[in-house]
Design goal:
With about 150 residues, the chain is mainly alpha-helical. The protein contains five helices and no strands.
């Protein structure tokens, strides 16, 4: 499984972020390109603990369900709903948001995946490896949503 901790996966995401433009049409779902970019930034900020999570509830916070959802099962197009914390920031100037998300992706390069990582609002306690896979899959999902 690809992870943002891997240099090649990170480079792929950064290159695709540079292709992402505010006028891209979505292929599924309801997010506009500017809202999707802001959402990607918020999800990365959650990974670093910059946006604190609400306490996780429900069965998907437990292993093996969380593991299956993060690492194994395909993600539905336009059906899943992320945590409210991942939708806090309104879109700003596209170039600024794009640069901020790119910096957050690059920040993974210096993060210690073996250090303690924040709890996720839906998936509960997660290791750095889980966050790396989740963030990669999440970004890949939304970039594909806009044909990038």
């Amino acid at each position: 499984m690809r992870t943002l901790f891997a240099p090649d996966a990170r480079a792929d995401i950064v290159a695709r972020l540079q292709q992402f433009t505010p006028d891209r049409s979505r292929q599924w779902g309801q997010l506009t390109a500017p809202k999707a970019l802001a959402h990607l930034g918020d999800q990365l900020r959650m990974a670093f603990g910059d946006i604190p999570p609400r306490p996780p509830r429900g069965p998907i916070r437990f292993w093996p369900i969380n593991h299956l959802l993060i690492h194994v099962l395909p993600w539905p197009k336009g059906r899943a709903k992320g945590p409210t914390e991942a939708f806090q920031s309104p879109p700003q100037a596209w170039a600024n948001d794009q640069a901020a998300v790119t910096r957050l992706v690059e920040r993974f390069a210096t993060a210690d995946q073996d250090a303690p990582w924040p709890t996720h609002s839906l998936f509960g306690r997660m290791r750095g490896r889980d966050w790396g896979v989740l963030c990669y899959r999440h970004m890949d999902h939304h970039l594909r949503q806009f044909g990038c």
